[in-house]
Input
Amino acid sequence: MVVRYIFILARRNALKYTKGVVLSLLKSEGKALENLYREADAIRHRKMGDEIYIRGIVEFSNVCANNCLYCGIRASNKNFRRYSMSADEILEAAFSMEQSSLSTIVLQSGEAPGIRDEEIGAIIRRIKKETTLAVTVSVGNRPQEMYHYWRECGMDRYFLRFETSNPELFGRLHPGCTLEERLACLGYLRDLGIQTGSGFMIGLPGETLDILAGNIFLCREFDLDMIGIGPYIPHPDTPLGDTTNVYKDNKEVFFKALAVLRIFNPEAHIPATTAFDAVFPGEGRTLALQRGANIFMPNSTPVQYRKDYLLYPGKPGVDDDPDQCLDSATVRIKSLGRSIGKGPGHSIKKRAP
Ligand code: SAM
Output
């Protein structure tokens, strides 16, 4: 289908959102590509406004029981120090975020058993009692009862990427885990009324353009509140360390995927993820904010832990303290003529009670 025609249909609410349309858009080049980026930015402006919400991410433990083939903190990697922050250290990070006018803390870690699930619940309770922050948790697959318990403790949102929509590829990359289980977890979260985020990596070894289109399409089918995507970056201490990103020679695909994601998910919060800066140093996240993204997530992890949470090499800001990360985020946002979002920046989607 001709790209311009797709946009006209979208504006008239007459577009059939199919995987075929995703594929056509992903193949945009030249003038059509310029139009794709312009349209994604216009939809972001119309639906999400010009405010950029800042969510500070605290990587509170790098202990992980999983062995995902691409991930730097996988259980079998012995080349770095494992840590788990204490509850008081996490609270301290939350207090300084609040002082810096951030409104959401994202608590991320490897999967169990760094900090026990009950302890995570107690930390959520304390953050909700002692600060005004919204709390997003991102610690992997859990039983529905645990998500329910964390919600009772005050958790506002949960973030769990499905990584790839292709079941065989998912199985190869995640020993002992299936795509079905991952999607079931996302279903539990939705059923519990928790604001749900997911997403995928772009260019995993074995990914085809068809799979990438399927990833974008799956985000729409799940009607997600938040969607985080970013390029896959090989980590030398993993089994895939020598396997390059499939779009290594065509990195524009990373931004095309982001723009199409926005067109297919007009009302989702979409962060400009750190991995964009790792691939395009100094400008990746800025470009992402101009091509569909509306959220920025500076690293709020205490500096002494940063270098041990290396999911992939080249992660920016490893030596900067949280205030420096926030300052550089503010500069970027202002340079785009956009403003910093006030309040928690919850999902704008209306859900049936
Ligand atoms: N344990 C939680 C989970 O699985 O959702 C959160 C931590 S996990 C390490 C955070 C994300 O890092 C993953 O969802 C994955 O998409 C991303 N990631 C890991 N290794 C990566 C790599 N080599 N390149 C790009 N992203 C990577």
